[in-house]
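Tokens for chain A. Residues wanted.
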């Protein structure tokens, strides 16, 4: 049987995280992001999903989302980083966590949670520890807004 490319461990970023169990080449599918397929309509209307940042919710296509908030979804343990080594991407109705760079054995697996920049961004402090850390969990495309906003204060 093929060995898992990940292992679960305590993380310096937050509580628990997933780590590379071996050297992993860029482009490798590491772990499936499992969950329940729900309609976009449900995710938009069910108050269960009306939380701060719907961390476990991923869009599949125009009609469907995937709710990954289940114990069996081990990939939900992956923490956010401002300089991530993974990305979550879909193939049909399945989501996979991919390596976006070569990853060394024992490195923590991370991806960009993709939180949008809004008035609440200060609620989500980032503890990723990377040189590029912007201090908050905000998607890379929106991080320039933080500097702008902090200048104003
Ligand atoms: C999807 S869980 C990740 C697994 C989590 N570490 C655990 O042990 O359950 C998401 C939560 O982890 C924490 N987290 C993830 N990345 C973080 C980061 N870069 N900085 C601070 N907290 C983070 C936040 O509390 C977030 O709500
Ligand atoms: Zn960070």
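Reply:
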């Amino acid at each position: 049987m093929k060995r898992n490319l990940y292992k679960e461990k305590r993380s310096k970023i937050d509580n628990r995280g997933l780590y590379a169990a071996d050297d992993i080449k860029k482009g490798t599918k590491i772990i499936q992001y499992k969950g329940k397929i729900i309609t976009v309509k449900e995710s938009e209307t069910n108050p269960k999903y009306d939380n701060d940042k719907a961390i476990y919710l991923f869009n599949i296509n125009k009609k469907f989302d995937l709710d990954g908030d289940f114990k069996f979804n081990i990939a939900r343990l992956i923490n956010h980083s401002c300089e991530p080594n993974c990305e979550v991407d879909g193939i049909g109705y399945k989501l996979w966590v991919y390596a976006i760079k070569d990853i060394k054995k024992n490195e923590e697996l991370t991806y960009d949670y993709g939180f949008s920049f809004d008035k609440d961004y200060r609620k989500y402090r980032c503890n990723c520890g990377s040189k590029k850390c912007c201090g908050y969990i905000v998607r890379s495309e929106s991080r320039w807004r933080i500097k702008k906003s902090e200048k104003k204060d």
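The first strand starts at residue 6 and ends at 10. The beta strands are 6-10, 16-20, 29-33, 36-39, 57-59, 64-67, 79-80, 86-91, 94-99, 110-111.
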